[in-house]
Amino acid sequence: MSVQEGTAHRPWVDKVLTVNGWLIFAFLYLPILILVIYSFSDSKVVGIWGGFTWKWYNRMIHNPEMMGALWNSAKVAFISTIISTVLGTLAALALDRYRRWLGKGAFDVIMYLPVIIPEVTMGAMLLIWFTQILPVNLSLTTIILGHIAFSASFVTIVVRARLANLDDSLEEAAADLYANRWTTFRRITLPLIMPGVMGGALLALTLSLDDVVITEFVQGPGASLLPVYVFGLIRRQVTPEINAVSTLMLALSMMLVFISLAFQARSISKSKNKEA
What we know:
This protein is mainly alpha-helical. It folds into 2 domains: about 35 residues; about 210 residues, MetI-like fold (Orthogonal Bundle), CATH 1.10.3720.10. About 80% of the residues lie in helices and about 0% in strands. The longest helix has about 35 residues.
């Protein structure tokens, strides 16, 4: 007897699972919904509804320090995402296609370290590297390098997963038609792995926009990013202005998720059309 047949005679099981699912969703997303709602409250006290208003968003926009941190976050995220996507994609190709080369095992382990080790440990290592070994002044450049150090590993993992499901016969067919390696990569390999590349890039962008711990270690004077700035405000006092900027960051993160889902849906649609 299958599991579905066993549960069909016990309708209370479905009800319990349904209630459990809704409770989990409420536990995860109800605090976020409350934060969004109270970002429009006219009261200065968080948690007390004082009527609908846009003034906290207006105050956020006219806050030069907050807008400066937002601009810094955008620059760091954009630059680090581009570089980490290129490096991560090249690393994934090297690990997947070239199976025998000196130091591959060590390189593979090193690429996974930023995903495994705690952020505090990595932040401390980067701080020592920038201040004691190089040494350089902490600035936006060191933040960008720090974000590349952990984002490239996530891109590599996503692209390798895409390469694992890639049909090698397509590249072999291109070689049979006298296409060189660069033409094969540009016309065949890159379009096929592009959903993985874009997924890794969006993941790197999201990680860069949300990172606090590593950024706290490697940032310099006047180089504060928005998550670190908000974290500093929370330690002093929680205000509706923090709710407003948190809602903005939530909206940006959701937009990235929707873009990623759109790319995945487009890729699935193209593959189905080719099969048809």
